Write the structure tokens for this entry.
Amino acid sequence: MTELMVETHGLRRTFKGRGKTVEAVRGVDLRVAPGEIFGFLGPNGAGKTTTLRMLATLIEPTEGTALVAGADLRREPGRVRERIGYVAQGGGSDPGMTGRGELVIQGRLFGLARKEAERRAVEVLEALDLVEAADRTVGTYSGGMRRRLDIGIGMIHRPRLLFLDEPTTGLDPQARAHLWDEIRRLRDGGATIFLTTHYLEEADALCDSLAIIDHGLIVAEGTPIELKRAIAGDVVTLGLNGSTDGALNLLRSAPRVREAELSDGTVRLYVEDGDLALPELLRLLDGAGMPPSSISLHRPSLDDVFLRQTGRSLRDEAA
Amino acid sequence: MKLIRDTWLIYERSMYLTLHNPVWVVLGLGQPLVLLLFFGPILNSVAVSSAGFPPGGAFNVFVPGLLIQIALFGAAFVGFGLVAELRYGVVERMRVTPLSRAAMLLGRSLRDVVILVAQGLLLVLVALPFGLRIDPAGFVVSLGLLALVGLVMAPISYSLALMLKSEDALAPLLNGISLPLLLLSGILLPMALAPDWLQALAKLDPLSYAVTAIRALFNGRFADPAVATGVGLMAVLAALAIVAGRRAFARAAA
Ligand SMILES: Nc1ncnc2c1ncn2[C@@H]1O[C@H](COP(=O)(O)OP(=O)(O)OP(=O)(O)O)[C@@H](O)[C@H]1O
Ligand SMILES: [Mg+2]
């Protein structure tokens, strides 16, 4: 059995402030295997950043234990810091420094000699397409350039474990795709990536395994394929006019329908064999005098997983 | 040694940032220069006809005091820069590296001290044509004392910045601390001119000992017990401030 890169048990963090306490993370158990891209998916305020900050030794867990990159988070935080890279959601570069300057100093903070740090900085600048801007101050960078620099700062010392808090937020589609490639390259080079994201496409396309967090608790985990498969069958979305209650009851009793739920006048059905179920459902509703105004069938996406687990759509919140 | 290497790295980076945006350095030097040019000559005429002045002429009283003022104000407000760095996420980013926590404080404080000493040198050069007479050896020790005052104030300022994390909270607090310290220390005028109750209060101001010491040093009176008292007191306070500041940097971010 290979040792896990991250393993947490009952990780918990409560923030106390003026009278009210916020339970940001309420008992998280995570297992991240070496060499994978692990995605931490959840809506705003779910507890992603808080979990990452705990794992990066920035804040102490209120309860629970964790092994990070082979070191005990509580007993050997110094060793954890030597082995990881961490890129905060808000970044961490100074607008008065040049991009190259920030990369070099970060490398040197991790013990690289000046020459070596300078050489590494060039590699990172090239990998992240920042060569032209290397000697300009960070204050003149666009949001996307700055984000890429922050990520470069996190990987300058080739950490075996790299935490990225929403690495692609604010990037245009091209830069995002570019960064995905770069993250995959890091993984293929042997690193483990632990990233958070709001984007389902990102989790689906990039991550080898995933955990969905909501209100400080893990609500689902597995590979994207496993998670989608957990929603057995297909999803049918129906638009209805008039009485939805009657229709909902009728649909629930239809064959092949496993579950039906209503949100904003649309009905979502989780059905087996969607292509066979579709004509049957249409006939059923027509027969009852309640023809649907729209109908669509799709394979489950991570959005459906999210919706199923949390009762909310991630897309609404990420917008 | 790791601590020295780390301190140097942080020093280099901080110095780079300061030199590329030297507004504060220039402003910090502006006030003492204005005082020297516009207030010094008046003081000089007062001093001639006043008994309250210690030996050495007005400029030998006034300029050493201005040096302490530079150290006090120059170092007291360095916390503002740190608040900005907190906001940029620079401090948090560096906390997730093997960087020594003490070096986070010492590297920045070293930058502050180097700038103070440079400002002090410049001020004295400007003051020489006005009639300032200095004892060279005493002046060198004075710069050391200046550095010590900086090492008292800068870590305090950084600690407060780490605690308060906002300019709005920091500004009134730093003003509230440094202005009474300044006035009670007898920087502008010798405390010998003050009424008794004020003189008694001044004895509670650690800076007043530094001011007395630096005036003795400018005149080369090394044997004056005020020198040992002032330097010793500043050294002890600097050590305490550095211990407290190191702890503030080491404490996990809330
Ligand atoms: N320092 C703090 N003090 C008080 N409450 C906090 C603190 N940090 C986070 N919280 C609270 O903890 C909860 C989880 O926040 P967290 O930043 O972990 O969410 P997130 O999943 O990263 O959200 P987002 O997607 O918006 O980045 C939120 O309710 C937040 O307000
Ligand atoms: Mg977050």
User: Anything to note?
Assistant: Residues A 48-49, 89, 165 surround magnesium ion (ligand 2) (CB under 6 Å).
